[in-house]
Amino acid sequence: MYNLDDIKTIEKFDKSNMRRLLSEFPQQEGKIVQSMKHVKLPSAYKEVKNILVSGLGGSSVGGDLLKNFSRDRLKLPLIVNRGYTLPHWISKESLLICVSYSGNTEETLSTYRIGKKRGSKLVVISSGGELTELAKKDGFPCILVPEGGIPPRTALGYLFFPQLLVLKMLGLINIEDEELSEVARTLEGLREEIDIHSPQNENIAKKIAGEIYQTVPLVYTTSDYLEGVGIRWKTQINENSKSPVYYGFFPELDHNEIMGWEGTKELVGKFSLILLRDKDESARMKKRIDITLSLIKEKTGKISEVYSRGGGLLSRIMSLTYIGDYVSFYLGILNGVDPTDIKSILSLKKRMSE
């Protein structure tokens, strides 16, 4: 296994300098807040009856985080859409947020055209491309990402916070400025602990990467507010580590997936388990988790628990997300791969365009 405290080893495999983008992530929120001061939304947008976020890959996870964060604050239904089409109920009373970092995601372009045809209230979030051109031509609000040319999965702050701020600007969700400020402080403090210069014995991200190395990770979320974080951990490990990984969430997994642990030791022993935990877990949830672990601990290879940081829910969601980003980066280094490289995705897109 490679030494994650050896900077030269990290530089050897991290040929595209993803470490820099990870280190700069805490600043993305502030840049977006500044860039959106001049964004104006039509007053008619305040009268919408439902919300849909349309996106794929790194451009869609922000919608998952938004859905989880807003579940106790938003009085309107909000769903995330990953595909070419839209539900039949999307109409002129719908707020349709189309998110594509490149602006050229074919599925998102398809949903934009459908939403426009149905008279939906459209908002575009992108760094350019065809989607931006269409929004400007059609007169819909377009929020431009401040930094272009980076992998979409490293632009989560640029793609998530505009969605949150749009809902705030429309009066659809209440969030205090201090809640937003706390996120940056929490992430900046956390960066000191998990960045590449922090030694493995003090670095939770390096520790977890070492624990799940040469296993198939399972990511379990333990709170109603963390399902999107579990999705993010999965997709980041897929892309950055070049590794299969799966996720599940309590209490649902206790009604089905728990039976999978009754397989043979030779099979289930290849899996490791990562529990994403939060201070808002109820007493019943804590009891459920303890019982579940007692039933499966002898079967799985390794169990790791990661706790959220910060006081407010938004900080806790983003802190667990940030830890997962670094875990996937370090696991990629241990696997001897360039975390940025996505040959299979690029090959698929090229063949789809032929």
Residue windows where pLDDT falls under 50 for at least 5 positions? none
**Gap from first CA to last CA:** 41 Å
Q: Percent range for helical residues?
A: 40-55%
Biggest sheet descriptor:
5 strands, parallel
Over the alpha carbons, how many angstroms does the gyration radius reach? 20 Å
- Rounded average pLDDT: 96
Q: DSSP helix count? A: 14
The order of strands across the largest sheet is 2-1-3-4-5
Q: Would you list the SSEs in sequence order as H and E?
A: HHHEHEEHEHEHHHEHEHEHEHH
Q: What's the count of strands?
A: 9
Shape: globular
Strand content: 5-15%
Name the structural class.
alpha/beta
Task: Describe the 3D structure.
It is a single chain. This protein is of the alpha/beta class and 354 residues long. Helices cover 45% and strands 13% of the residues. The protein contains 14 helices and 9 strands. The strands form 2 sheets. A 5-stranded parallel sheet has the order 2-1-3-4-5, sandwiched between helices. A 4-stranded parallel sheet has the order 7-6-8-9, with helices on one face. Helix 4 runs antiparallel to helix 10. The radius of gyration is 20 Å and the shape is globular.
How would you describe this structure in keywords?
single chain, 354 residues, alpha/beta, five-stranded parallel sheet, four-stranded parallel sheet, 14 helices, 9 strands, 13% strand
